[in-house]
Amino acid sequence: MNTNGLATEGLTYRFVLLVSVVLICMSSLDSVIGGARYIKYAVAPVLFFLWLPNRQFSYSIRPLAGYILLVVCGMFSMFMGDVAFGFKDIVFMSSYIVPLALFYTNRVKVREVFYIYIVFFLLTVPTKDIGVFSISGSSTLFEGAESFVFGAFAISFFIRKEYSYLWLALLMMMLTLKRIALLGVIICLAIWVLPVVFKKWFLSAQALLAFNLVTLTFIILLTLGGMNEIIEVITGKSATVLTLGRTSHYIGVVDDLMAHPAGVLIGNGAGSAYAKAVYNYTGDHLYANLHSDVLKIFYEYGIFVFLLFFYSMARLRTSAARVLALYLSVLFISDNVLIYSGVMFFILYLILSFEHDKSMNINNSYAAT
Q1: How big is the chain by its Cα radius of gyration, in Å?
Q2: CA angle 331, 215, 89 (to 5 degrees)
Q3: How far is Cα 302 from Cα 70, in angstroms, rounded to an integer?
Q4: For labelling alongside 67, which of 76, 217, 267, 305 has CA 20 to 30 A away?
């Protein structure tokens, strides 16, 4: 759709996107309403058929190009990987890509989405187990993936200088604490307050691509035991304990990469990482989540798609959007957020909200190089 189209068309897009937000939030109520988690997977096909009569995009889908690349490559590569798990991943990714690609509009404000998200989170609180607050143990009162989303909202509100919302988002993030989300917020806010020349350098596409290559290398070395002594000296803990057992998930994938280096070029196929994940020190190969999207993308799709994905992910118009791309990269180090529809939808929505805000031109503090 032409963005200068009729106001009524814009309102239609606003309505559809708001309904999508509500339905994806409703999926979090599975502990309250049995089977609610499946609602988010029905959103994408319904919206696709609603979009077919016009077959026009409301805004540029360039910020989503890398994610679309993974879906397209996954559709072909799952036949040499694992068809069942590869297809599942494609459905999960499509469930957040399709609503944003087809019906994103800046008529839906960030505050509105934040309010809706908090309301649905509060509805789930009575069903959650109450934990003990511990940053070292990555636990808190209501630990959950919501921490990833609240962290992204906190970064967004900090950049927008909406400080009352910032403090609320930070509080909610700590109540649902995930250590990697806290680390991501600290890194992103620290970079944002740097002088412009340093900020633009750290948020350049090349720097963000290098960051993901470095973290990938670190994970592989960590899994092979190459970082154990350094980590124990610095933290007093083993790598396995410090990562909450994450390295025990990586062993199967890293061993296979070492045994079959040719797979680095074209990957092993969408869904193939599940069978290689080793779970909780047992040495058994189970169909488990790998808990590292950066390693998963490299293993399943190969180095060429890996480079294209992360470069595309970083090729954003504004520094504000690139900060959130960096935040995602931090989350990708040790979690599976790429297949978390209820996380990725909201973080990508925030990225699009910066990219398509006309007030953020290349001459202001939001601008990227």
Answers
A1: 20
A2: 50
A3: 11
A4: 217
